[in-house]
Amino acid sequence: MKPAILGRWVGDTGEFFASRWHREPGVFTPAGGAYTSFGLADAEDALNTGLFRVPYIEMWEDNALLPARKFTAARTVARENPAGFADHEKIRALLDRGATMLLRCLDQWHRPTQEMLAGLAEELGRPVEAFFFVTPAGQPGLPLHRDDADVLVIQVAGAKRWRIHEGPADGNWRAGRIKDDEPQPAELLETVIRPGQVLYIPRGFAHRAVGQEGLSAHLSLTIREAGTADLTDALARHAVAGAGLDALPVTADALTGTAKKLLENAVRRLSELTPQELVDSARRHRMAHMPAATAPLSLTETAGR
Questions:
Q1: Which residues partner with 286 through β-bridges?
Q2: Where are the alpha helices (DSSP H) in the chain?
Q3: Half-sphere exposure of 176 (CA within 13 A, CB side)
Q4: Separation between Cα atoms, residue 129 and residue 139, nearest integer Å
Q5: CA 154 to CA 28: how far, in whole Å?
């Protein structure tokens, strides 16, 4: 199957996988502009419902995550006072002074994005998540960091200057911020991304960005890959599958017998398992945790029955 959704952003997917995937960053300018399922108007709609709240929204300033109280408020609902609701005035004030707004996990609450990501995940055989960043001109977004994912950045408004640094030297690395006292990875690419353009950042390649012209907004798609922990879990699931074990052996002999049965089952099943089958199983398990694309609730349909 040709990756039709991915092709909207990178063009020739065969060339992309051969020359870019996991290897080097790149900028793409699709004919007619890059497709996006989410833009500033969608962000406005979400925030203006009055129901949007943490942890789906974060604010960052001076390379630090701001406490939720700085951009949220409590409400009175049925004589209770739940906190964490997005406060428009606080958010506007923070944006005016240069803070970055991050909307998390769009695929959990924005149906067009959920449907798009379900298709992309099916094409790639890997789970995908979506995030939306809004950064004022001249201001940094997140500090220099590595993501445990390949990232597609789709610029939807304004412009943003990106600096992409080299990836990990081996498999012993961690995702997250690169501290000032750590060795700084060499810079590979500096570029400005404008509306309709797409930036690809390979998994683990360090990066940071600064808003340029106008209010910069981009949709970030993170393509997650399985790790050693996922392989270990998949191995355990495969080893015990079909063993027909008792849940709670009563006696010591019964427990020993269950252990013997488990080992025999594991030896048989693992002897038939290939490395690629193990990787595929780990990936499928991670994909199963993506939000399910269920039919929308229709109260009018229900009322008309």
A1: none
A2: 4-10, 13-19, 40-48, 88-96, 111-124, 228-240, 252-271, 275-287, 299-303
A3: 7
A4: 25
A5: 10
Sequence letter at residue 97 = R
Q: What is the chain's Cα-based Rg?
A: 23
Question: How far, in whole angstroms, is CA 184 from its chain's centroid?
Answer: 24
**What's the pTM value of the predicted model, to 2 decimals?**
0.90
C-alpha distances (whole Å) from 24 to each of 130, 142, 203, 204 are 21, 21, 10, 11
Short-list 146, 293, 282, CA closest to 225 = 282
pLDDT of residue 2: 62
Q: How buried is residue 73: exposed, middle or buried, by Cβ count under 10 Å (0-12/13-18/19+)?
A: middle
Both tokens of residue 264?
């025999």
| Helices vs. strands in the chain: H and E counts, helices first | 9, 15
Positions in the chain whose pLDDT score sits under 70: 1-2
Residue type, 40: L
Q: What does the alpha-carbon distance between residue 112 and residue 44 come to, in Å, rounded to a whole number?
A: 16
